[in-house]
Amino acid sequence: MRQVINFAVLRSVLAASTMLATPAFAQDVLQDATKPVPAESQTPAAQAAPTPDAAPATEAAPAPATPQSDIVVTGSRIISSGFTAPTPTQVLSAESIAKNAQPNVFTTVAQLPSLQGSTGATVGANGTSTGVQGLSALSLRGLQPIRTLTLIDGQRVVGANVTGVADVSLFPQLLIERVDVVTGGASASYGSDAVGGVVNFVTNTRFTGFKANLQSGISTYGDDGNYTVQAAVGKSLFNDRLHLIGSGEYSHEDGIGSAGFGVGSNPDGSGPGGRNWLVSRNLINRGITNDGGPQYLDRSFTQANNTALYGLITAGPLQGTAFDVNGNPRQFEYGSNGVPLKDANGNVLGCYNGVCEGGDRSGNVTNANSLKSTITRLSGYGRIGFDIDPDNELYTTVNVARVTTGNIPNVGSAQFGNLTLQCANPYVPTSIQEACAANGITQFRYGVDNAIFPNSISVRTEREQYRFVAGAKGKIQAFGGDWRYDAYYQHGTGITDITVRDIPLMPRYNAAIQAVRAPDGSITCANPAAVASGCVPLNIIGGQTPSAAALAYILPGNGPYQHTRQTQDVASFSVSGEPLQLPAGALSVAFGSEYRHEFYQVNADPYGNGVVTSGAYDAQYPSDPLLNPQGGNWYAGNYRDGRGAYSVYESFLEVNAPLFNSDGVGKANLNAAGRATNYSTSGTVYTWKVGATWDTPVDGIRFRGVTSRDIRAPNLSELFAAPVTSNRTGTTDPFNPGRTLTVLQTTTGNTALRPEVARNTEFGVILSRPSWAPRLNISVDYYRIKIKSAIAALDAQTQINLCFAGVTFTCNSFDISDPNNASVTVQPFNFASIFTDGFDIEASYQVPLSGIGLPGQASLRGLATHVKNFVSDRGLPNTIPIQGAGVNLGQGATPSWKVLAVQDWTTDLFSMTLQERWISAGVISNEYIVCQTNCPVSTIDHPTIDRNHLDSAFYVDISASYKFTDAVQGYVKVDNMFNKDAATVPSDITNPGLYDVVGRAFRVGMRANF
């Protein structure tokens, strides 16, 4: 990654240019250069990052005959010679992306320290209903992808998920010229969602020739095999007036599948492929707050005490009786020297809240989901541009792409002690029936992993994107100067299909397990209505494989599905020019308007969605009197129908005014922008920004600062989502200590939501190419973001806990009075706030190696982000703000430090790149009080714990390439060269957003560029 920060100074427009001006980046970014540009018009970033065989940094870098990038995101719409935007921008060049040699460019971008909380192939692999499996969505500042605006060539992209976020893996990756990451609020310039910043993928709109990339790889464990095939072609016709570009790619990653039951239970390599770092780690809640010991115990190799691989009686006088594969009774090994108390709640002495340390862990399901989803990408892209004259172009682009992912979120549809079996059930062994009689009981509570099902639950998600753009851009002479314009219309359609297989219909499952003897001695279902509708009895005691008829009844081939269609229509027009000259330089303005319409519709299967009458079921989903006509019949994946739309009208104005420009005081600019945005759902909202830069008279020193008011409008899902139900297993009941529940959680939208409002402030200092170190660049920026009226929802467990703690706001959202029918409703509201601040640090240095007798040039680059605070405030009575900085747990985790360092050696024939990735050690939660003895009273806000630590991570990657000819290059890449294990985290598989769950990975490939 040899490109340094883009300080957003734009070069003057060339007389022969047919497009808008572009920044003068390094020669590795702007290729096919033919014309020199005066050195004084270059940016410091451009001057500081030459290629190994480029001219010395003090000389002019060459420029292209025609601009290669039409739209540049620099946190500003101003296009003017010598303009320096106050918003920091980090840049990844095409060369940097190529050297990182990833199957998906998303992985390379997400490694930047300022990006935290991004999703991807390793995120969401444990989810059935989330819809984010394999979704390559970027997140700045840990504020989630919904608060990062992702663009391609400065234009919005139709959402690939009901949240409206773009899927980067659908972009034409081989044509990406660079990626600009604006690390600050940019809503006034670019509209809603740019709270954390903007990520813009700039494509090469003037590519000519042919290039291709072939790549294949595998992990050191023999899994996650992958291969990628990419090709692009470009041709200019009619005296270089007609420009035709096309690209296509196919990529497949096997992912890392489930290792089955008991994964992470033993330190013997039982994790997928032998990854023995994957252990079952839990926080054991003792439920005791005032005995001088910690309430929570951080333990590894834990297990649930209310389920077992082939079944376990979980309460009452027979508690602790488990069954082997043949259905024979045995004593369950609890671990923690656990002793079942055989009471009605199923308490176990020595174990807490359903969790023990050690014991029989063969049925563990906590870590048994896929470690990484499979992902297959197919993408096609085309662009036609026609120059009306040397200054104006008409163009159209087409992007058609599909991404298919698959994962196993659960290996067995486990039932955590929430079943009741009758002692007279003919599948109950005779010895247990006799024990029932001896103890005066007719039924018992029961938990089982359902390992009898031949296949694990699997989720297949397919995302398709159809995006069409038609536009015109260029410059015209008016009012005595050049005025640049950019007008385009975009129509995008995103289609998502989620299909779940091998998952039980719970009303049928519950009917099938209640077996009785028929008068003829055969075994049948106890419910006559179930028998009439085709019920086939199921034996869940032991490991006997169910009959084909039983499986077909409980696990119908037509599983849950969700079909989502999203459309986005955008009409945009913007103008930039210099209407007058001020004493210190030209006054620059940019203004424009945009119309956007967003629509989505979701259709789900009737078993999950529900129907008014049984006649509404179709042939694939026949009516069944056992099923709830209101839906929610599946074990998970109960999708719902829904639809919604909104329209947006907005206009913006941006001004850049040079304040002074002299040798004595330096050069300064004032940059200001405002935008009015009207949403059909919530009315008008205003955003603005004010910033300034000062090139001081001190050699190489520049200051910059900007403050802005930014917004994020509620997305279609937050507004209009129909209720979606899912089972939340392992929910604890604080009103009845020791009781765990399976809660039916219903998530729904809220049309009364308003836009979030954020205040974003950044200021920094840059040392750029001082005379005493002409190849050195260093920048340090402080950022501060405060979001008010943040849209948030509380999960089931949190709502129950808050009610128990006296927050009455949440008490009406759930009903757990009946443990067999517990339910919680989850809905978003504008009640939260988020505050985060910290520092971004970047440094780069390039030096030719001729002085030490070596060919080529060495380039060093380092980027670091330090998060000082990440405070989430629920805004509810009797709750406290939660400090998330330094917490390495959870998908949106924000470690205290995240660092990326790159050292590159490049010659005419070969290159070698070494990269280091580091995240600092963190905690499980900053609210915990760590103690072993003499602990204070543990509270909801500040619970006590015996250990509060999550490991740091340091990964080393290495790549090398060699030119066989001027046009053909071979390369190799090793990620995580020392096979550093991922950290385990409590109550979760790990945090793949921070830790490398794949391990050492090898890739080899060939590139051609003719």
Looking at this protein, list some descriptive labels.
1010 residues; mainly beta; 22-stranded antiparallel barrel; four-stranded mixed sheet; 7% helix; elongated; disordered N terminus
Structure description:
The protein is mainly beta. The chain has a domain at 506-554. The protein is built from 11 helices and 48 strands. The strands form 11 sheets. The chain has a 22-stranded antiparallel β-barrel.
Topology summary:
Blueprint: E1 33-36, H1 44-48, E2 62-64, E3 89-93, H2 94-100, H3 105-110, E4 148-152, E5 176-182, H4 187-190, E6 197-203, E7 209-219, E8 226-237, E9 242-253, E10 281-285, E11 296-300, E12 302-304, E13 312-313, E14 321-323, E15 329-331, E16 339-340, E17 348-349, E18 355-357, E19 374-389, E20 392-410, E21 415-422, H5 430-439, E22 443-448, E23 457-478, E24 481-501, H6 506-512, E25 515-517, E26 523-525, H7 528-532, H8 548-554, E27 561-582, E28 585-604, H9 606-609, E29 642-662, E30 666-679, E31 683-695, E32 701-712, H10 716-720, E33 724-732, E34 740-747, E35 756-768, E36 776-792, H11 796-804, E37 814-815, E38 823-826, E39 829-848, E40 857-873, E41 882-883, E42 897-906, E43 910-919, E44 929-930, E45 944-945, E46 953-963, E47 968-975, E48 1001-1009
Parallel strand pairs: 4-6, 34-38, 44-45
Antiparallel strand pairs: 1-2, 3-5, 5-6, 7-8, 7-48, 8-9, 9-19, 10-11, 12-18, 13-22, 14-15, 16-17, 19-20, 20-23, 21-22, 23-24, 24-27, 25-26, 27-28, 28-29, 29-30, 30-31, 31-32, 32-35, 33-34, 35-36, 36-39, 37-38, 39-40, 40-41, 40-42, 42-43, 43-46, 46-47, 47-48
